[in-house]
Amino acid sequence: MAASLVGVFQEPGGGAPPAGIGHNPRFSFSSSFIYLSGAVHMASVNKVIVVGNLGRDPEMRTFPSGDQVANVTVATTDRWKDKQSGEMREATEWHRIVFNGRLAEIAGQYLRKGSQVYVEGSLRTRKWTDKDGIEKYTTEIRADQMQMLGSRQGQGGPSGGPEDDGGYSQGGGGGGGYSQGGNGGGGGGGGGYTPRAPAAAPRAPSAAPRQAPAKSSTGFDDMDDDIPF
């Protein structure tokens, strides 16, 4: 395989390679060109990372097989300073994201309009036909990973869900039957009392000294003196 052109440098009269190139065995420098030496195999990459806020609540769909799909739109905002006016400018881009399977269940349960999310996925273009019989194409992001960001109070889900624990464990417990989530109703009180039990333990020793100075026997002796018989 012939070497591939990587870059062009305007070096009058050739000369030494730019800093950092001459010592790299994968590059060769000739006159004003840099070539990759040898064959280079690079797989194509289709990867998208989006960090933004939902524009609306997830749109849920359930297939006859029972699989769920959640469609959301996430907004990302670019900000820059206008060179002429010196004012800050911004532009918002909306991204259509599709969650499948377990991610769809989590998205439908906890994500709401305004929720901030981190999403990794890949671009997919699908063809569909509208009600007029016209074929149309839509480019979406098929999510592979999702992480909820920002304040837990900004997330949805059942009350007392992830706000208390800050993760999937307690929120997932409501739907997935995790032990921690299962204790959230009845046993949850016991879980809350667990830290208080050590606090009660120090009270027991402190209570014992209080009983010692009380000297109940001494009190009884005084009472015996007052007994009329």
From TrEMBL:
The keyword DNA repair applies. One of its GO terms (cellular component) is nucleoid. InterPro entries: NA-bd_OB-fold, Primosome_PriB/ssb, ssDNA-bd. Residues 168-193 have a biased composition (Gly residues). Keywords: DNA damage, DNA recombination, DNA repair, DNA replication, DNA-binding. SUPFAM superfamilies: Nucleic acid-binding proteins (SSF50249). A motif (Important for interaction with partner proteins) lies at residues 224-229. One of its GO terms (molecular function) is single-stranded DNA binding. Residues 150-229 are annotated as: Disordered. It comes from the Bacteria. Gene3D superfamilies: Nucleic acid-binding proteins (2.40.50.140). Residues 194-214 have a biased composition (Low complexity). One of its GO terms (biological process) is DNA recombination. Homotetramer. Plays an important role in DNA replication, recombination and repair. Binds to ssDNA and to an array of partner proteins to recruit them to their sites of action during DNA metabolism. HAMAP family: SSB. This is Single-stranded DNA-binding protein. It comes from Variovorax boronicumulans.
